[in-house]
């Protein structure tokens, strides 16, 4: 009897809950998360087709820009030959109409203005296409770029939607077969604010009976401050990161532009325009790509959570052992 009273007086020692695998996860995402996501989006042939379409889309867009440069050089070369023929005609007319020789003229191109003489040193190619043919080729390049871009967007959207649907169905099927302990130990929402609010609404009668409104209000304010600070930190970090990317991009474009003024004196205008335009596109794509890569990592964290939910313990069936039911 004495031992029984002592056992009743002693507080029962309860085991502290162990950290779940989700709380213990640290570091960068594993490569298996990305592999499982893309495997859910389609087979190997679908992914290869997506990669090919992405490469073709970029090649078509860059090819259109390169053709504009080549076309501009062709038109500049055509104008140079036209001015050269005009200068030759003027030279012949002047030679036939007067007996005085032209002093200091050793080349026909020396009669023309200074820009024409500089252009003659750089243009070593010949005019290949007419203006109409060049216009048709440019139209084909633009139409091909638009069509390939549409196909690329549709295929990428299809792969992402298929992956999301399959992962959701797998997770939902696994949760339906999960144990009751899973629903007791996992909140219905990711944010502590929503979890605390849901728990407060469910136990509203008990909270009012115990007079714990002030305590619950302080806990909610603490969760709200943590939620707001983390959200503001995400926005501030994105803006600051974008600002420094803009600074680096502008410095790079300035270096490219001034390099043609200080280092290279024989480049054509179309080549300079192509270099500057491609530099602007490259810096814009780099900035957008880095920002989107951070968003992908954030969303892949949710994919990692979904993959963890697909591996939860299953509720034993009615045909299992009596001790496991």
UniProtKB/TrEMBL annotation:
Residues 1-22 are annotated as: Disordered. Keywords: ATP-binding, Membrane, Nucleotide-binding, Transmembrane, Transmembrane helix, Transport. Coiled coil: none annotated. Residues 135-188, 189-298 form the ABC transmembrane type-1 domain. The keyword Nucleotide-binding applies. One of its GO terms (molecular function) is ATP binding. The chain crosses the membrane at residues 44-61, 135-157, 231-262, 268-286. Pfam families: ABC_membrane. Residues 9-19 have a biased composition (Acidic residues). It comes from the Eukaryota. Gene3D superfamilies: ABC transporter type 1, transmembrane domain. One of its GO terms (cellular component) is membrane. InterPro entries: ABC1_TM_dom, ABC1_TM_sf, ABC_transporter_C-like. The keyword Transmembrane helix applies. This is ABC transmembrane type-1 domain-containing protein. It comes from Timema shepardi.
């Amino acid at each position: 009897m004495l031992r029984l009273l002592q056992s009743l007086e002693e507080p029962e020692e309860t085991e502290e809950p162990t950290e779940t695998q989700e709380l213990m996860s640290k570091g960068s995402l594993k490569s298996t998360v990305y592999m499982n996501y893309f495997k859910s989006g389609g087979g190997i042939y679908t992914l290869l087709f997506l990669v090919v379409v992405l490469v073709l889309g970029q090649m078509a867009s860059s090819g259109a820009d390169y053709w504009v440069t080549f076309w501009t050089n062709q038109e500049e070369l055509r104008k140079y030959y036209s001015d050269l023929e005009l200068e030759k005609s003027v030279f012949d007319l002047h030679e036939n109409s007067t007996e005085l020789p032209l002093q200091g003229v050793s080349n026909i191109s020396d009669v023309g203005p200074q820009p024409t003489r500089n252009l003659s040193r750089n243009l070593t190619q010949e005019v290949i296409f007419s203006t109409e043919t060049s216009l048709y080729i440019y139209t084909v390049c633009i139409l091909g770029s638009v069509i390939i871009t549409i196909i690329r967007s549709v295929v990428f959207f299809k792969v992402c939607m298929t992956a999301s649907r399959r992962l959701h169905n797998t997770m939902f099927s696994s949760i339906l077969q999960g144990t009751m302990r899973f629903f007791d130990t996992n909140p219905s929402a990711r944010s502590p604010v929503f979890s605390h609010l849901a728990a407060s609404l469910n136990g509203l009668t008990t909270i009012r009976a115990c007079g714990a409104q002030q305590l619950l209000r302080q806990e909610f304010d603490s969760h709200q401050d943590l939620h707001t600070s983390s959200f503001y930190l995400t926005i501030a970090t994105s803006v600051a990161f974008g600002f420094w990317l803009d600074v680096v991009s502008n410095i790079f474009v300035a270096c490219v532009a001034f390099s043609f003024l200080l280092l290279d004196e024989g480049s054509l205008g179309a080549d300079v325009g192509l270099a500057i335009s491609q530099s602007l596109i490259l810096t814009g794509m780099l900035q957008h790509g880095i920002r989107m890569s951070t968003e992908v990592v954030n969303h892949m964290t949710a994919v990692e959570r979904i993959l963890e939910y697909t591996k939860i313990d299953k509720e034993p069936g009615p045909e299992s052992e009596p001790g496991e039911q």
